[in-house]
Amino acid sequence: MEESQELALTQFRKSVEKLSSSTEGYEVPTLMRFLVARSMNPDKAAKMFVDWQKWRASMVPPNGIPDSEVKDELDFKRIYLQGLTISGQPLVLCQVSKHFPAEDPVTFKKFVVHVLDKTIASGIKGKEVGDEKLVALIDLSNITYKNLDARGFITGFQFLQSYYPERLGKCYILHMPGFFLTVWKFICRFLEEATQEKIVIITDEEEERKFKEEIGVDVLPEEYGDSKSVPFQFLKFFATGAVGQDFLSVLFRPRLPYSSIKMLACGETRRIRLGKHTVEELTAESFDGVDIALFSAGGSISKKIGPLAAEKGTIV
After folding, report:
1. Three-point CA angle 31, 34, 36, nearest 5°
2. Residue range 59-79, pLDDT digits in tens
3. Which of 225, 235, 296 lies closest to 260, judged by CA?
4. For residue 59, which of 47, 73, 69 has the smallest C-alpha distance?
């Protein structure tokens, strides 16, 4: 430890005592987290530390918040512990599409503490050192307006900032839809600069590649990991009219993970072009090596081609 850090730590302990508290029983890495969070200012760090002690004593039982106290929140099954990243930090995944604004704010706050404590504990090997960090992965795919909860986001980040200083290693946000940007800008007003610097919003393939390298594909669920591990190819049959339009809107939505596009149709329909995509002839051979084929239900072509696809072993 550098001399300047030792001096700051000594002054920090004295400042805590002036606030009628004590650092006894806390290891140096724990105390240093508070100093770093307050830019090595001993007095500000001491106030933060004492506030944390008081909060912890009033909010969290000695053995932590039990599952039974946050059962309703756990039942949403939106939070998953994924194991350790390449750097040895525990990864926690939040699927926001399964989240809904809490009816009981107190229980939700307990749930946040429950999740953070469990996540940090999952990364401890033997005795807690005090400077363990976590990595968060927030997935915004498939969210709708009913999932929006700015207050919930702010609560989570403010708890990290105020009561878990320097516990956040990094936070990755995936699949942020355009309509969420306004909400996110509002949330950012409550985030400290140090917190914002640890947040990475994945917006392109290069950022996604770097994210996977930093985290490690093995710790990610299959749908977030290496696309080579997905054993399916997908053939989509696009009908004209409303059904076809629905299929296209799904196919071309931002960040849909596809590697190539092939459009097929029967008879005269195949002569059309759709942008840069040529529509090819649809035959029984089109299904060679294809696992799943999606057709518009009840159409005459579906009735004709569907059985041919099934003969190839394709799920129709």
Report:
1. 110
2. 999 889 999 999 999 999 999
3. 235
4. 69
Q: What is the mean pLDDT of the chain?
A: 83
**Is CATH 3.40.50.1000 the classification given to domain 67-227?**
no
C-alpha to C-alpha distance for 14 and 28, rounded to whole angstroms: 14
> What whole-number distance in Å separates Cα of residue 238 and Cα of residue 248?
7
Distance, first Cα to last Cα, the chain: 65
> pLDDT tens-digit profile of 12-35?
999 999 999 999 999 999 999 999
Max intra-chain CA distance, the chain: 86
pLDDT in tens, 117-169: 999 998 887 777 888 999 999 999 999 999 999 999 999 999 999 999 999 99
Candidates 186, 194, 106; CA nearest to 154 is 186
The tokens for 272 are 């059309």
